[in-house]
Fold each of these.
Amino acid sequence: MNWQTIEIGRQGYVATVTLNRPDVRNAFNETAIAELMQAFRELGADGSIRAIVLAARGPAFCAGADLNWMKKMAGYTHEENRADAAQLAEMLRAIYTCPKPTLAKVQGDCYAGGMGLVAACDIAVAVENANFCLSEVKLGLIPATISPYVIRAMGESASRRYFLTAERFSASDAHRIGFVHEAVSSDRLDAACDEIIKALVSNSPHAVKEAKRLVHDVAGMPLSDALIADTAQRIADIRSSDEGKEGVRSFLEKRKPAWLNQ
């Protein structure tokens, strides 16, 4: 497919989706939103892929919404604005619910909606000199569609501060509040991401998928009888699965599991 705003590369079990609008700091418009949604849905359904990296070209990771797109939105009706926002919300959900593990490789500044892209991924690694900003209130807006993911990533307390102040904060602060998992020097970014990807693709693909679903379903739930029963059912199901049986057998037999030889 001829992508207009992204590139997709594959190496072994890993796919890389690269934001490819460096001239506008990888700001997204309606085309980028549609292409990202399609890419993550297709790669999520691809049995040959075990992990997906979200990366970007140029000095910035993503500056949020494209200015020309924002100019168009200024003339939208309320209903047109709602439909437009719904597309962005669906794109973020496609990344968040993608059955494959996702890694955001943040090589530069990340603002506004770009933070939604990072937060929707399972794991995030950023360069130390990257800056982050939830700048919406400066423009009289709010970070509504990205909020379910950003609040999950950085927590309610940090979200209150940065949603309300629109302060710019550093990668070290992003790491401190849990928004990114690692902040590394620029010459370490590739290696740090490669280490994580190596770990992801070495594990049982089915177990990784179910472990991701487990976190989504259990986080924030009350410790009820229903939750206890559900988790007991999940471990019973995974133990009796083909990969569950193979994993235990290979461990006991001191050999590599079959999924490493596929």
Amino acid sequence: MQALSPESRIGTVHLVGAGPGDPDLLTLRAARLIMSAGLIVHDGLVSPEIMAMTRSGARLVSVAKARSNHTMKQEAINALLVREALAGHDVVRLKGGDPFIFGRGGEEAEACRAAGVPVQVVPGITSALGASASAQIPLTHRDSASIVTFVAGQCKGLTEQDWAGLAGKDRTLVIFMGVATAPLIAEKLMADGLAPETPVAVIENATRSDMRVLRGPLAGLPDLVQGQRVRSPALIVIGQVTAEPDTTLRAVALEAAQ
């Protein structure tokens, strides 16, 4: 039986989550796809260590996005994925974190399905989970947080959104893409009734060798971000779970482990 030529088949688009940056946190399937793919369309937030896993000769297409400076608009990315798949190429669409949590993977999947292109989704550890774990900040805790909410700090209609009740007693609020809008976020939350002294943590470059965890009160969030020159990728976590760890409990845990 004669094999099909690349032009006579439709490739598959794999939406792959690269996690927060540490290659050890990739799923096995994500690692296999990254190492074997002939074509990878990747975001700018995918760490250099993960990009180094790509095979020799693979075609790497960067569609990195920064605030007000997009290498390629989302519609063009969608069209690129569809065009390559219809040309018979399997595509790994590599995204930081998880494709379906503020990754616009849903839009890409919809575009592929509309064009008759098969799509497979490989979930990744979202930056909220990776960052909080690497900083040892539990997003939920029986004593201080039974609800956790994820929001985007940079999106359409941010000023009109009602965030009342998303943070406060027994709640943790995790803000993606909030570095550039930190002053607006602090003002918005305090205007909605959150106490200025509410503890906040900013986690920069989570899970990577240059990770930083910065803490302070909500009212000081703008100064914290600007004064420490925080850069993306960074996550803002708001709530009692971000307060400095109890050193007594830490000492007891260390003694028990010895």
